[in-house]
Amino acid sequence: MRLPSQMDEAMKRTIRGLTSAGEPLILEATAALRRYHQAEDAGEPPEQVERLRVLAESAYQAVTDYQLYAYGLQPITKH
Q1: How many C-beta atoms surround the C-beta of residue 61 within 10 A?
Q2: Residue 47, domain extent
Q3: Kind and range of the H or E element at 46?
Q4: ∠ at Cα 76 (71, 79), nearest 5°?
Q5: Each residue of 10-63: pLDDT tens digit?
Q6: Mutual angle of helices 4-41 and 46-70, in 10-degree steps
Q7: What is the pLDDT of residue 65?
Q8: Does a structural domain hold residue 51?
Q9: For residue 6, is it within any domain?
Q10: Is residue 79 part of a domain?
Q11: Using alpha carbons only, how large is the chain's radius of gyration in Å?
Q12: Residue 77 DSSP SS3
């Protein structure tokens, strides 16, 4: 049986692993959201702003899908 401190450490390693494994996706999603907001603030054409919004939304969905997969809560679905 693990002691509480051992369980905490194991959990931290797991969370760190998940975070570092998903870090490129998180960075990509954050950059996509930033580009969307910059385009919106700059008054770019609505079509361009909408395209960037869809890209940002898709990137965040990829992060969510990956995290659910990494936690064993959802299989990876290939489209």
Answers
A1: 11
A2: 17-70
A3: helix 46-70
A4: 155
A5: 445 555 655 665 788 888 999 999 999 999 999 999 999 999 999 999 998 888
A6: 170
A7: 84
A8: yes
A9: no
A10: no
A11: 17
A12: coil
